[in-house]
Amino acid sequence: MNNSLNVQSSTLNVQRSRCGRIGDRGTIARLVFIRRYLLAGGSTSDHLARMWECSRKTIYRDLHFMRDRLGYDLEFDSSTNNWRLLSAPKPVL
Predict the structure, then answer these.
(1) How far from each other are the two terminal CA atoms of the chain, in whole angstroms?
(2) Element housing 70 (H / E)
(3) Residue 66: partners with Cβ closer than 8 Å, 6 or more residues away
(4) Which helix (H) or strand (E) is 69 found in, with range?
(5) How many Å apart are CA 37 and CA 55, to the nearest integer?
């Protein structure tokens, strides 16, 4: 009985950390996904937030981090609310 409670608690912690701080595994996975999605043609922040079950504000933080800290050339089209990736640095990993 005690083991099942621990498993459930750890599962909840994984779900909560999905939209964690920059540097968390979930955040890194989300940044990689956003990069791939934008390379494939772009997306709205609402769509990305729904896909990752997080807020639009989290997606905005990720996009600004990618632009300001990682050097990605992002473009926002206000007529379609669509983000596009114009160019990206080569991955270091």
Answers:
(1) 42
(2) none
(3) 31, 34, 35, 72, 74
(4) none
(5) 17
Global confidence as pTM? 0.68
- Torsion angles phi and psi, residue 3, rounded to 5: -65, -40
Q: How far apart are CA 29 and CA 85, in angstroms?
A: 17
Q: Map residue 46 onto helix, strand or coil.
A: helix
Query: What is the per-residue pLDDT across 21-58, written as a single tens digit (0 to 9) for each?
Result: 555 678 888 998 899 888 888 888 999 999 888 999 99
Local structure of residue 22 (DSSP, 8 states)? B
Domains and CATH numbers, the chain: 2-87 (1.10.10.10)
**Residue pointed to by tokens 């992002």:** 74
